[in-house]
Amino acid sequence: MAELTPRQIVEELDRYIVGQDAAKRAVAIAIRNRWRRQQLPPELRKDVTPKNIIMIGPTGVGKTEIARRLAQLIGAPFLKIEATKYTEVGYHGRDVESMVRDLTDMAIGMIRQEQRGLVETQAKERVTERLLDLLVPQSGSWDPDNAEENERRQRTRDKMKARLEAGELEDRHVELNIEQKAVPVQIFSNLGMEQMDVDFQNMFERIMPKQSQQRQIPLKEARRILLEQETEALIDRQVVAEKAVELVENQGIIFVDELDKICGPMSTHGPDVSRQGVQRDLLPLVEGSTVTTKYGPVKTDFVLFIAAGAFHRSKPSDLMPELQGRFPIRVELTDLKRDDFLRILTEPKHALTKQYAELLATEGVTLLFTRDGIEALADVAFEVNRTTQNIGARRLHTILERVVEDISFDGPDLPDKKVRIDGAYVRGRLTEILEKEDLSKFIL
Predict the structure, then answer these.
(1) Domains, the chain, ordered by start
(2) pLDDT tens digits for 279-329?
(3) Following DSSP, what letter does each residue of 228-279 receive, concatenated?
């Protein structure tokens, strides 16, 4: 993240997402500010909190895609959640603190992967020695004083090691003692069991006797199993947990989607546990609190929260005032126009037209989208969005799928493997639908 300037972050996002420059700039600045904060002296650093963001815009304009591509771009733990999945603490459903636990689990996975790279060389050396022990078993009558016998065994071992490294023994079968993996223990309860600082899985693994089985397997399969075992043995779980907690606290990002679904007027008939209740529980997390996880306490003071919502039936001012104040940056994403659809179909690195062309190329079919064909697709998408429900760029998926439906079905059997998608072809495939009075019945 250190080498990416805000301009470079925006340029990377431009490769996949068309338009929405304000949202891209906002997230780029927020990500760069994470790095800037790390450069400050410790006494100042603890007072610099992240400036959380609300992205406001209709569905299908790129809110989630910006967050998803941002996650792939930076090496920070990133979690995308839907606000509608949570309820107030004490009621049936997930409480909001579980999102911090999920984020910590993701960080654990990232640190474990990093640690695996560090111990890989040592683990491979240990695997080689264990494979040699399987191929050249040690004699039960080992005599430290018999130098000649010891030297002979060492020569045999060295020859076998050379063959092993040359890949000559990959298909030879060896007998390996394999431990059976324990079935994960899951606890389903609405009594706040998630908050208990107990790793039940590891606890049951220690209590239950380990089951193992002798199996004859190819050497290449034995190498994979042994490498997994040795890597796990070399990774220090405590170090992984400490680094993961530190990474979450300083670099973690939580993307809260569908925020508009949990805001609205106060309920007048009983507890509103999935709207106002979630807002009340979300507030301390965004402000900064300590969440107990099985890896230790995690502080959320410096976790960056990016929220998004369409806000069709509500507006950001319907949120609790305290929660509004914790999202100081607001960016509006614009509706997609005809020209935007044109760009979406052609400019991104993996544009939809390129995806369909490559998919059908696996069948030997050459799919050629002409300029007027792409313009026809954009025209139809814009018109249907305008006259029915506006679902943004997702409309293109439905329209394109219908246009290439026959080609996809007949692709393996087509006599002519070159298909030209021009304006006439597009309109011919969609004319019947466009003439219908109720468009939404046919294109959703």
Answers:
(1) 6-106+243-332 (3.40.50.300), 127-138+146-241 (no CATH), 338-434 (1.10.8.60)
(2) 888 888 998 899 998 898 999 999 999 999 888 778 888 888 888 888 999
(3) HHHHHHHS-HHHHHHHHHHHHHHH-EEEEE-GGGG-SSPPSSS--TTTHHHH
